[in-house]
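Escalated from tier 1: nicotinamide-adenine-dinucleotide holo job.
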Amino acid sequence: MGVGLIGGSVGLAARESGWTVAGVDRPGQLEAALRAGAIDQPATLEEVRGSDVVVLAAPISTVKETLPDLAGSHALITDVASTKTAIVAAAERAGLRFVGGHPMAGSQLSGVANARADLFRGARYFLTPTDATDPEDYREVQSFVRELGAVPTAVEPEKHDLLMAALSHLPHMMAAALLEVASNISPEALSFAGPAFRDLTRVGASNPELWSDILSENAQAVGEVLGEFVRTMEDLGGEVEDRERITARFVEARRAYDSLGGILVEKSGTNVDLAIPVRNRPGVFAEVTTLMGSNSINILDLYVRHSNTERAALVLTLDSDAVKLARELLSTAGFASEVVG
Ligand SMILES: NC(=O)c1ccc[n+]([C@@H]2O[C@H](COP(=O)([O-])OP(=O)(O)OC[C@H]3O[C@@H](n4cnc5c(N)ncnc54)[C@H](O)[C@@H]3O)[C@@H](O)[C@H]2O)c1
Ligand SMILES: O=C(O)C(=O)C[C@]1(C(=O)O)C=C[C@@H](O)C=C1
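Tier 2 regenerated the structure:
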């Protein structure tokens, strides 16, 4: 439901993977979605209750309002909304088969006309399972996300929202503030902007209604990171003539910049799940992840399958190119491993 930029891109990518896609949206949007090849057929919310998977891709507040209407449906429901805590809670209240989702991909554009089948390729895609999530439902949504070309990453809803406040919502507010400050200097000021200003303000062209929805839905976390940002700017302001201090800040910034995430894998379908049966003991988790990290093997996703209190299997998602080396390293370190997907 909601066949705009993100819903349309889900439709295009899912159809390429062989799914039949029914779209729920306003009539004009559905015509555009059909023309763009993002859906096979228009439908109503009532009609899609019987589908295998329902993807909610409308603005956050609309998704929240829609969840109770899906109560009693047997469909596996997920969403793409930019905040997760309130949506996950609403889905649990409605008793749905639900796994929250959020692709870290998109743009300042909106509408199905800007949708792309490859929008999610190689992008991180958050999933927010909770204690109430059925593990089988989680695996199904995880596999759907991989079919879209994305890299699933599990995170708690509250942690997700705090991370997004800093990594997505604050930058959008900064873009708006920068544009306002420069515009206020003189009417023609913006016409003199160079690449730095352009890079920093691209998302200032985002959909205003969508962003007022996102910010107000994440008001508490946004308030926390905004407070920290304002304090940091005040500190910087007090240091501008202290060359040593500013140099240290930029050295630190450059170090942080070098560890930025981005597109995680170039091609879809190259990820492999590797199960490592282990005895539950303190430190076993770290042993395996350190072994991978110290040999430059990137863990794309990780979860634990418990068989009983003593035994468990760590399941690592790795790029297929890294699997051979990972299994050799594990074997040398005394761990068995098995490719499971
Ligand atoms: N834009 C991004 O970069 C981005 C990235 C990740 C996640 N998201 C999230 O994805 C969701 C959709 O954003 P978008 O960028 O695709 O917006 P969009 O405006 O391109 O698309 C939203 C679509 O939802 C439809 N819609 C609105 N209310 C509806 C209703 N009651 N019933 C059916 N359809 C309805 C609209 O007609 C529109 O087609 C939002 O929750 C947003 O937070 C956006
Ligand atoms: O690239 C952009 O223009 C985006 O705004 C994408 C972006 C982001 O902030 O990174 C925007 C909102 C999302 O929920 C996820 C991704």
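The domain at 271-339 is CATH 3.30.2130.10 (VC0802-like).
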